[in-house]
Every structure is written in C-alpha cells, then in structure tokens.
Amino acid sequence: MEPQQQDRAKSLTAQVLPVFMKRRYRTVAAVAILFLMLWMYHGFAQRSVVPLPSHQFGSQEKADGPALPLASPPPAPEPTSIPVEKPTAETHSHLEIPRKIWQIMLPRHTKGKKQTPDPKVLEDTPSWLIMNPDYEYKLVGEKGADEFVSQHFADKPAIVETYQGLQNLGMKSDLLRYLILDVEGGVYTDTDTIDIKPIDEWVPAHLKGKVGLIVGIEFDRRDGGPWAEIPHWLQFCQWTIAAAPGHPVFPKMVSHILEAVERYSSAYQVPVNKLNPTSFEVMNSTGPAAWTDVVFEQLQEYEPTLKELKDLSFMTEPKLYGDILVLSINGFGMGQRHSHSTNDGTIPKDALMKHLFRGSWRG
C-alpha cells in the first residue's frame, strides 16, 4: 500500500475507532476494523494497477505517434497489428509540430580536400537555444546527414543516390532539410538566422492543433516590377520552415527535386556528381522558387479558390489554408528592402525570426 493510501486508511480508522472503544463493543470493533482495512486495501490495490505502455522496439514509430493496443491475454488469439497511416492532406491536421530545432552544416570540398568549418557560422545559433529552452536542438553534419538519408530512405534508392551525388552545397542542403522535416518534423532554420519569438508562440492560440506546416514569404511583388532572379509574383522562403512529420508537401517536393536533377543531368549529359548548376537552376530545382511551386500546389488542393500566387499578395496577417499557416512578409522576412518588409531598425510585432543573409549556398 502506498503512503498516501496508508494515511487515508489511518485517518478513516481514527474516526471509527472511538465509537467502538467501549468494552462491550471491543470484539465487534476488532472484527469491523479488520473488515474495513481489508476492504480498503483491496480497493486501493485494484486502483493502483496501471498497465505499462506497449512499445515495439526497432520500429520507426515516433514517440508521440498513436499508441498501439496491448496484446490480449491468453487464450485469446494474437492481436492483429494495426498499420500506422502516413499523414495525408485529410488526416494530417491533428498533428503537432515537434519541439525540435534543426540546422545543417555541410563542409565545402576544395580540390578534393574538406575545409575546416568556421565557428563563426554558428554565432547566431544561441538565439534559438535561449528562446526555446525546452526544445531539442540538433546540428546535422556530413556524416550524420549521410547516415540519416541512408537509414530512412534505404527503400528509395533514387533519393539516396541523388543526395550522395549532389556536389552543390545549396542543392544538397535543400534536399536534406526536406527529408529531415518529412521524417522528424520540427523547425528547420539556416545558421544565419536569429529567433525573435519563442517557437511556441508562432501559432496563434485559436489555431493550436490545426497547423501542420508554417511557411513565410520572402518576396512579394505587390504592385512593383518583376525581379530578374525571381520568376514568381510572390515567393516563399525556405531558410526557415516549421512542420509536423510526414506532411504531404515534402514527398511532392522531393519528387520535384529528383525530376529536376535528372532533367539537368540529361540536358548537360553528365552524371549527377558532375553537375555545376547556375544560381537560377538551384533556385528552381531545390530552392525557394521550386519550394514555392510545390507549396502553392498544396495550398490549391486545400483551397481551390486560389488561382495564382498573386492571390496571396498584400497579406497583412497570417492565414490558415487547410493545415498550412502562411505568414505575412514580416513573419519570416523582416528587415528586407522590398516587399513592404519592415526595415527601419525596429522589430515589428508580427516578426518571428530574422534572416541575416550571411550564408553562401551557391558553392
């Protein structure tokens, strides 16, 4: 019996005992108290039994995924295993974005020699740790990335071969972030970013539990002219992405990348590991232009009234489409000299993080 149960039993006994202390009732009292103690112990013992959770070791089921039923005791037949469905556009919205922060630091190779990483690359990372003390943080390097891709996509050789073959750091890092978020979920952010608000505050209170993907705008043409390197009227950034694992946008994005890489390889008549893409090709195969195409396609599935990216222009507050939360320009894109982004030295109330544009992804 636990201490709390013992205290309850003693308290109740102390209340009953004086009533039966008279000599002529002592025998009856002893029997009654014994009966009472046995009854209470039996009742508490039954309520104290809590079945242990069932775990299937070796599976890739997430700790926060649906619980599997306990096996039925003999002589009942063995329980049939329940398949865990991968979230889709219809079933995904109940998932939460895990408390994980991911950053990637892949080394450059110059003339076959790996360059030593510069510690200054991570000088902005502390903001993410300080603002989100209860979050799990992971910096993914070359070895960890290779192991992650090989382990989680062993049944998809095209993904593994493409990732291993890509030599352009921008393309490689782009593909890796989508794969990580597809499997693990959480927040991916470039190393040249700073956090402004705790991630727990990124989703408005009335939308908690309804958001499976958070995307920000990096460019909004609004009523201005076109930009040479940006083919879209409005473009989503992918320097920071927050997502629940298994969001349907990621398999679509990965398929887009595989097709684009194969197309470039065929056009230049070189294997993947010999590709030397232009900046425009990087942006339109793995980068923000490609990401914008795929995300908007998913938005249109959720909201067919969206006909073109221009329909999202001039946003002044976050808006939910299906389970995708689209932020206004200041959400992930403050401090820029375009798109009506706040750039006067102040931090607007709708800013969640800031990109410092220190990285170089074209190598």
UniProtKB/TrEMBL annotation:
The keyword ATP-binding does not apply. GO terms for biological process: protein N-linked glycosylation. Keywords: Membrane, Transmembrane, Transmembrane helix. GO terms for molecular function: alpha-1,6-mannosyltransferase activity. It holds the Pfam family Gly_transf_sug. The keyword Disulfide bond does not apply. GO terms for cellular component: mannan polymerase complex. This is Uncharacterized protein. It comes from Bionectria ochroleuca.
